[in-house]
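Quick one, tokens below:
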């Protein structure tokens, strides 16, 4: 199959390589990136001309402009898919700009360059179908399964709520630890801390727009952060008061 990949950031590069490894053709357009000559297209129109799949791999804040500029080049033979970390707003934008005419679906590959480099498995991808194009879900499922992914189907709101309590909170905690300088020396880190090291590596390695996107573009992230801070403060106060209950973790019996 032929893919037009619009955006060649860290994830775009990794996804392009996955597609190439699977035997697909990839045409890339990104005026802000150094795209290898064999993949580079001079324009979005040229990249999409013969493509079956159009992959939107730009930051979420750029998606509306990209869809508006791309719309004149699209037809029913295209299937548009985004790969952003939040889904409600991107799915709404695709419904608005592509409507009933252009098949489209939201996706969130739950992996990135670091997890691919570490060979982490299973690779998982969430699909958020458009009610306008339910038939596209099965095609997208086959695509990602052929790339070695386990596929999870959820609606966009459910996805964003789940990401607010997992993805957004993990990066929120990790960013605080990074800014405190914690985790730079792991020579004496106990096993209980080493799980956090992956979060720290992800925050250090990911572009700034990803952290901002998962915090600001997810409509539920602020509420999750507020709840976390509230609970942390409550635990802190109980510890200061020498409250014995503060030392117990629910679900873990005392020794």
């Amino acid at each position: 199959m032929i893919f037009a990949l619009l955006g060649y950031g860290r994830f775009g590069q990794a996804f392009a390589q996955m597609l190439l490894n699977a035997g697909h053709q990839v045409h890339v357009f990104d005026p802000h990136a150094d795209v290898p000559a064999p993949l580079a297209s001079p324009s979005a129109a040229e990249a999409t001309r013969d493509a079956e799949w159009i992959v939107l791999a730009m930051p979420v804040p750029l998606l509306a402009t990209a869809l508006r500029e791309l719309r004149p080049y699209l037809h029913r033979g295209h299937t548009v898919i985004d790969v952003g970390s939040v889904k409600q707003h991107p799915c709404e934008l695709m419904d608005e700009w592509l409507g009933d005419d252009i098949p489209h679906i939201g996706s969130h590959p739950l992996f990135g360059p670091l997890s691919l480099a570490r060979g982490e498995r299973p690779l998982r991808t969430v699909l958020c179908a458009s009610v306008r194009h339910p038939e596209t879900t099965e095609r997208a499922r086959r695509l990602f399964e052929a790339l070695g992914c386990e596929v999870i189907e959820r609606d966009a709101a459910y996805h964003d709520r789940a990401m607010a309590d997992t993805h957004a909170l993990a990066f929120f905690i990790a960013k605080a630890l990074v800014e405190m300088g914690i985790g730079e020396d792991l020579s004496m880190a106990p096993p209980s801390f080493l799980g956090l090291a992956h979060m720290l590596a992800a925050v250090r390695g990911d572009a700034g727009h990803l952290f901002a996107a998962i915090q600001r573009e997810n409509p539920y992230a602020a509420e999750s952060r507020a709840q976390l801070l509230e609970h942390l403060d409550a635990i802190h106060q109980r510890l200061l008061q020498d409250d014995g209950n503060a030392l117990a973790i629910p679900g873990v019996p005392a020794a």
